[in-house]
Specification:
With 122 residues, the chain is an all-alpha fold. The chain has 6 helices and no strands. Helix 1 packs antiparallel against helix 2 and helix 2 packs antiparallel against helix 5. The chain is globular. It starts with a helix and ends with a helix.
């Protein structure tokens, strides 16, 4: 999948969060809130493609949760318990970015918010 299509899917995820998300925020506030959360998560995990060790050190729990997700779908050596089709070659940048988008799109609102707080927390 090309990068443009990946961004389109990311926009679809943002649309979902704007329209299905936390109802207590109104107007543009909810749009800004979820855009910030999702783009922060996306950019942080994207950086892990280029500098895995840095992201593992700075955000160990965030990276571990993403890696656990990846292990279910990557084409690298996999645990025998996974019978689903491997769909990501994590050595390929486009596949890696697509995996991030799939990962984010599967997050609940609360999990996305918690992940965001793990990234921005001290």
């Amino acid at each position: 999948m090309d990068y443009t299509k990946s961004l389109t899917i990311l926009n679809d995820v943002l649309y979902h969060y704007r329209n299905q998300g936390q109802a207590r925020l109104t107007g543009g506030a909810i749009n800004d809130y979820f855009k910030l959360i999702i783009t922060t998560i996306y950019n942080t995990l994207k950086d892990s493609f280029y500098n895995k060790e840095k992201i593992q050190k700075m955000y160990p729990e965030v990276y571990k949760e993403f890696e656990d997700y990846l292990k279910c779908y990557w084409k690298d050596e996999r645990d025998i318990k996974f019978e689903n089709k491997a769909i990501f070659d994590i050595q390929n940048e486009q596949d890696y970015l697509q995996a991030i988008i799939y990962y984010i799109s599967g997050m609940t609102d609360n999990f996305a918010i918690d992940t965001y707080h793990k990234i921005i927390g001290f």
